[in-house]
């Protein structure tokens, strides 16, 4: 009996995780826009499950700040004013610059290879012009820099803010050319990190994030 219950919990846990991951990906890529109400019935139909795992997934995303409760009932994708978005990017500047600085100091052959592979994937997906694929690749690129710090707590915080601003950043990639330009903008950043000059790496990331922020504000 206990084994059956454990198996049932594992299956439900994996189902909840799958729903959470897919919704997070859609939100981060801007497929589900800020302010959109998430309908439990439609989500159960989409994922072919009961309401229980859907509700659990929505609860997890709400706890992360990705979703917010509606005034009457249910949840919607979080929206931010331009001032709030500016404040979030201000914090992201600091955490991402710190990640680049520490990554340059602790760079290993493995982390270097991971960053190079992630950049190659960014360039390749940008050439396809498929937004969701590029958003995935771009996020993976930044995550390799976070991991290169060797500090999982810093990586977790940086990842959380990157996901929360995903829907807003997605809007700046209106064309294939926008994606290609974004992928190419990584090259100077990589050069600074690989130089192992921590100050140059930090400033390179600040410049990269500033350009990203200005483009994001212009698109929102």
What does this structure look like?
It is a single chain. The chain is mostly helical and 220 residues long. The chain has 2 domains: 2-77, Winged helix-like DNA-binding domain superfamily/Winged helix DNA-binding domain (Arc Repressor Mutant, subunit A, Orthogonal Bundle); 82-219, Four Helix Bundle (Hemerythrin (Met), subunit A), CATH 1.20.120.530. The chain has helices spanning 2-28, 40-47, 51-63, 82-105, 109-128, 131-148, 152-164, 166-170, 176-194, 198-219; strands at 37-38, 67-69, 75-77. A 3-stranded antiparallel β-sheet has the order 1-3-2. Mean pLDDT is 89; it is low at 2-9.
Topology of helices and strands:
Elements lengths: L1 H27 L8 E2 L1 H8 L3 H13 L3 E3 L5 E3 L4 H24 L3 H20 L2 H18 L3 H13 L1 H5 L5 H19 L3 H22 L1
Antiparallel strand pairs: 1-3, 2-3
Helix pairs in contact: 1-3, 4-6, 4-7, 4-10, 5-6, 5-9, 6-7, 9-10
How would you write the strand order of the largest sheet?
1-3-2
CATH superfamily of the largest domain: GntR ligand-binding domain-like
User: Which fold name fills CATH's third level, the topology of the largest domain?
Assistant: Four Helix Bundle (Hemerythrin (Met), subunit A)
Largest sheet: 3 strands, antiparallel
What is the total number of structural domains?
A: 2
Per CATH, the class of the largest domain reads Mainly Alpha
Low-confidence stretches are 2-9
The CATH architecture of the largest domain can be given as: Up-down Bundle
Please bin the fraction of helical residues: over 70%
Strand content: under 5%
Rg computed from alpha carbons, rounded to a whole number of angstroms: 19 Å
Structural class: mainly alpha
What is the arithmetic mean of pLDDT? 89
Structural shape:
globular
**What is the N-to-C succession of helices and strands?**
HEHHEEHHHHHHH
Count, helices: 10
Terminal Cα span: 54 Å
- The total strand number stands at 3
């Amino acid at each position: 009996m206990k084994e059956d219950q454990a198996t049932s919990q594992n299956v439900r846990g994996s189902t909840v995780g799958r729903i959470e991951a897919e919704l997070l990906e859609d939100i981060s890529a801007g497929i589900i826009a800020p302010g959109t109400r998430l309908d439990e019935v439609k989500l159960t139909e989409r994922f072919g499950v009961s309401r229980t795992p859907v509700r659990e997934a929505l609860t997890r995303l709400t706890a992360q700040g990705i979703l917010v409760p509606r005034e009457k009932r249910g949840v919607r994708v979080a929206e931010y004013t331009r001032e709030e978005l500016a404040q979030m990017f201000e914090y992201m500047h600091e955490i991402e610059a710190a990640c680049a600085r520490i990554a340059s100091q602790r760079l290993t052959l493995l982390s270097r290879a991971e960053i190079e592979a992630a950049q190659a994937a960014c360039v390749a997906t940008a050439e396809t012009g498929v937004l969701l694929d590029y958003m995935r690749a771009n996020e993976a690129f930044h995550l390799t820099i976070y991991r290169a710090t060797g500090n999982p707590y810093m990586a977790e915080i940086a990842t959380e803010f990157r996901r929360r601003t995903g829907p807003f950043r997605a809007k700046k990639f209106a064309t294939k050319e926008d994606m290609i330009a974004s992928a190419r903008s990584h090259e100077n950043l990589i050069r600074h990190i690989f130089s192992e000059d921590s100050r140059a790496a930090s400033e390179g990331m600040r410049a990269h994030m500033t350009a990203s922020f200005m483009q994001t504000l212009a698109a929102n």
